[in-house]
Amino acid sequence: MNHPFSLAHLTALECAPPELTYLAAQAGYDFVSIRPIYMGLPNEPNYDLANNKAMFKETKLALQQTGLSVYDIELARINDDIDPLIYEPAFEVAAELGAKHVLSSIWTDDTELGREKFAQLCDIARPYGLTINLESVPIASVRTLKGAIHVLEDVKRENVGLMIDAHHFHRAHDCVDDIKSIPKEWLHYFHLCDAQKEIPTSKEEMTRILREERLYIGEGGLPLKGMLTCLPDDMVFSLEMPNRQRTKELGTFEYIKQCLASAKTFIEKGNTYAVKK
């Protein structure tokens, strides 16, 4: 199986897109997945490339010098108050950097409004050659894989995708067999990570773990083998594995190297990754 790997920005969010690109190339990744959409979350750096022309030029230069490409950008959230048109500058940036995909999630409990805005997002992205990939998130409004599938079936847009995150899949009690029913043309990439098997009972603890305590591939208790057997052999794996403590102990570069090593070992040999002491 020939799986390309992308470094998801959340794994090393302390790195601006240019630095992320250089580190990803040195560590052996094939792509980078960046977050040029600023959401204003606590402790979130602002990498709004559409309004930071200097950083945009530096990112473009880093891509040229390393030969890497941007695989996707994130995160085009949908909620009650956001007009999807605000994301168009980021879509323009994504297209200029060579990205093909945008990650989105739905955070409004108004089902009709969520579908309407998701369809609008697809229409805005289409002229830029971008797909909009819906991610089900257990702390959001569209929480499950089946819920995300229903959204895509309802909006009936050609440039849609379904992005499965291994952590979210397990926390939502999704079933591996449901992956088999997904149209293959919807599956553009997969967020690969591992985490403890026990599912937190509080939203706060689940949020903390997904943002700062994910594990090496094969180290935790997620049903990864079952999920991966349902995916195309050339699936792009975006490694979203933030772990604050390990990054602090190892440094960003060594940590992202071990993330990639754990993924390759697990996929190629089916073994649990031996973490370096």
UniProtKB/TrEMBL annotation:
Domain of life: Bacteria
Gene3D superfamilies linked: Divalent-metal-dependent TIM barrel enzymes
Residues in Xylose isomerase-like TIM barrel domain copies: 23-247
Pfam families in the record: AP_endonuc_2 (PF01261)
InterPro entries: IolE/XylAMocC-like (IPR050312), Xyl_isomerase-like_sf (IPR036237), Xyl_isomerase-like_TIM-brl (IPR013022)
The protein's name in its UniProt record: TIM barrel protein
Lineage: Bacteria, Bacillati, Bacillota, Bacilli, Bacillales
